[in-house]
Write a structure and sequence with these properties.
It is built from five helices and two strands. With 127 residues, the protein is mainly alpha-helical.
């Protein structure tokens, strides 16, 4: 989960057998009450439907789904959706995340937090 600048708010690494929307529920439940100013969550179409209802009921947040336009072919930048994709690109610059694989989800999560802390520190104090 990232903010509108693409900076990491929280991360949860789960097995590939877990659907993203189910993993999102776990992530949001773990962080319930941590981000009181958030009112809207932007997501792609995979999160529409029952997840939107769950989000409204449990957290009182609105889900804004960023959908492809009808008849779209090829790559098109969608509003707000590029934010998290940019964050993934920033994280991919870290060899620890892009080339090595951890044994536990917890160590992967720790490495993601470390990579984001490094990125933010470099922005605060450029070399």
């Amino acid at each position: 989960m990232v903010d509108t600048l693409g900076l990491l708010l929280s991360v949860l690494v789960h097995p590939g057998s877990v659907q993203d929307r189910d993993g999102a529920k776990d992530l949001l439940e773990r962080n319930e009450g941590e981000f009181p100013r958030i009112k809207t969550l932007w997501a792609d179409a995979a999160y529409a439907g029952m997840f939107a209802d769950w989000l409204e009921k449990h957290l009182g947040w609105c889900l804004a789904v960023m959908r492809k336009t009808k008849g779209q072919t090829g790559f098109v930048v969608l509003p707000k959706r590029w934010i998290v994709e940019r964050t993934f690109a920033w994280l991919d610059d870290n060899r620890l995340l892009s080339k090595e694989y951890e044994r536990t989800p917890e160590s992967s999560q720790a490495n993601i937090y470390l990579a984001m802390a490094r990125l933010m520190l470099r922005r605060l104090a450029p070399s």
